[in-house]
Model the fold of this input.
Amino acid sequence: MARGTILMVGTRKGLWLGRSDEARKDWEFTGPHFDMEEVYSCMVDTRGERPRLLAGASSSWLGPQVRRSDDLGATWEETPGGAVRFPDDVDASVERIWQLTPGPDPGSVWAGTEPGAVFRSHDGGETFALERALWDHPHRSEWGEGFGGQAFHTVLPHPTDPASVTVAISTGGVYQTSDGGASWQPRNTGIRADFLPEGQQYPELGQCVHKVARHPARPERLYLQNHGGVYRSDDHAATWVSIADGLPADFGFPVVVHPQEPDTVFLFPLSAGFGRYPTDGRARVWRSRDAGETWEELGDGLPDRFFVGVMRDAMCADDHERTGLYLGARNGAVWGSADGGDTWRCVVADLPDVMVVRAAVV
Done:
């Protein structure tokens, strides 16, 4: 049976869907789906008999909604009244859905939102329930907002332990549960907050974490891109160590782990928090094959004049045997690599501001 590739590209004005074969050289795109709606999160769920696409779309008039498709985007369904909503006794409303990710159990889907909350679905993303203990956490009143808003942008269910989930919020930091969500603990030891005064730069909370990632075969190891700083944890987020040496900058948003190689990680560094474009204006992906001990620059096929950013969920890998990588930029272009980042080509251009890309074999 032929193996194809699907690429979901969420933008600030709708969703585009790309289809290709296993070679991933030629692409056909459809869109916009949900025209003029912001799509900050999407997900390809391949755990069932047929793939399900999920998209976290936000309308200025109707609010956010998790839309779903079981026919690769030909038609879409939604939950009446919205899939992700706070209970009636909570004085808050969901503004955006920043993250959609599968859990280890069939039908399990997690969502991270703005304002900072985490929700869980047991029916494949059709309905969600609030993780109440995290919403009621005593730290919540002290969580701030980054320039993009206050959001749980990272949700990492443990691949083999359903009771364990690691999440991250800007600005608040990394939190983790080991008892199925009954309690949550901060996990920020060793992360430096450069924007705080000297002597206060290693707080228990208040970190502006941009993204966290890991490989399912080695779940105790995590990689973290901070608002200034790149880190690795080898003890399931109990402590963090810097792995920024050798990079052109320690600021950025995405961090992606190679799906077949737990020691291989990819970053897209930016020149500090004010410029927010790559060093010298050259688009480059940086790869480490030794868990961050050393880094190499990848740029074959990427533009040498590039003065926009790549957001935290706008870089991803597919699950082909020969791994493909994708990055979408705020200038509306998406680049793809079918050889693990060694060479790149533009697969689509002139879209709106790209917020998220997700790819999978279908």
The CA atoms of residues 65 and 80 lie 9 Å apart.
